[in-house]
Amino acid sequence: MNSKRFIDYLDTYNDKTQYNYSQYSLLTGAIQSNFIENNLNDISFVGNINLKNPTKNQPVFLHFYPILENPIIKSSILESSILESSNNFYSKYSGSIWNTSNKQNAETQYSIWQKEHETNIYIPALPATITKTKQKLIDASINSLSDVIKIIDENEYNDDTEYNIDLKSLHNIKDELKELNEMIGMDSIKHSILNQLIYFIQELHVGNKTSDFKHTVLYGPPGTGKTEIAKIIGKMYSKIGILKSNVFKKVTRNDLIAGYLGQTAIKTRKVIDECLGGVLFIDEAYSLANSGDNDSYSKECIDILCEALSNHKNDLMVIIAGYEEELKETFFKVNKGMYSRFIWRFNVESYNSKQLMNIFKKKIVDQEWSMESENDLTEKWFEDKKDNFKNYGRDMELLLTYVKVSHGRRIYGKPVELKKKISLADMNDGYVTFTANKKNKKENNYIHSIYI
């Protein structure tokens, strides 16, 4: 052995079969010195040792059992084992900062710390593997959302049954499918979303370490339910695993573009990071870009968005909404690569007078009001006034507010039975207030534009 280090000498123990007297004396002397001088006889280090029958948990002492028969070392260890409380990790004789008490069996600082920090580690068992013992073929002739909902209602999902369609995923999104199907009108976009869903649910969009773009455009005027549609899409795809989280964040220009060059990049990237795994919804996306070519803030924002659309195609879905022509002349014009990344383009149709009437009726029911006479609410009433309802659903909500105000004025001091029952007079008076406020808004916008 060339090395003179004690640890190296110990490492050769298994290799040595013969010891001369001087080697044995050197080894026992060194061990005795270390045990006594460094307080290694403390049971905090050696544990409660059975010197007659060492266990496998004390391999060192199996190696040096003859040395432990040394009377000095043996008596020192036995004395420590008898005097020391098994509750103390560190000896009460130790100078460790964990100890503040010299009382036998007293709690030490270490034992107090240990109690405060101990925790039970729960490792959940893996779910039992379910063997598919049955098979069931389902007629998957689907032409509408109603067909999908019918399949769900007529076929209960069972874990032990193998199906020819992903019935479990369909059951997971039953509520969202019904909510979408119950939205008034929107036949075209419902059909488009159905096509997208059937494509995604079969994972046909997934390739070798990549996937197709999921980014979507909702073309249409304000008040046609685009935000609600975007939320439903996000919920559906998070529930079936196409998206990894149920994050849904709606933003506008102010959320993405800052007042100084350079800050826009920080602001935009922060929003993107917050939406990873879910949906980023940009309403009226054409506001991000001016029709002119000199808005460097807008270009910075849109360039970063365009980059994120590709870099995060697997874990981000961006949905934008707005008028088709305005989006093409602004948002898509600033960065030519944008258009090709939004491969899903849905048109949200404008509402006709009958659909406006049904939206208004639904809002009345949702707010637990009613009509005095259902005959007072007619399609013709809405047809005559349709030109003033350019914001469709939003205008119906605003109209109902003014109608309720008129109703409150009319029934004040009258029998309680009249409360929350809308009359034709309430409708007409509310409409007058609605148009008056709309006219004032236009005039204010005109005056404001003069000074810009």
TrEMBL record:
Q: Which protein family is named in the record?
A: Belongs to the CbxX/CfxQ family.
Record-linked Pfam families: AAA
Query: In what residue span(s) does the AAA+ ATPase domain sit?
Result: 212-331
Q: What is this protein called?
A: AAA+ ATPase domain-containing protein
Native organism is viral metagenome
Upper taxonomic lineage: unclassified sequences, metagenomes, organismal metagenomes
SUPFAM superfamilies assigned to the protein according to its UniProt record, in alphabetical order: P-loop containing nucleoside triphosphate hydrolases (SSF52540)
Q: Which UniProt keywords apply?
A: ATP-binding, Nucleotide-binding
Entry keyword annotation includes ATP-binding: yes
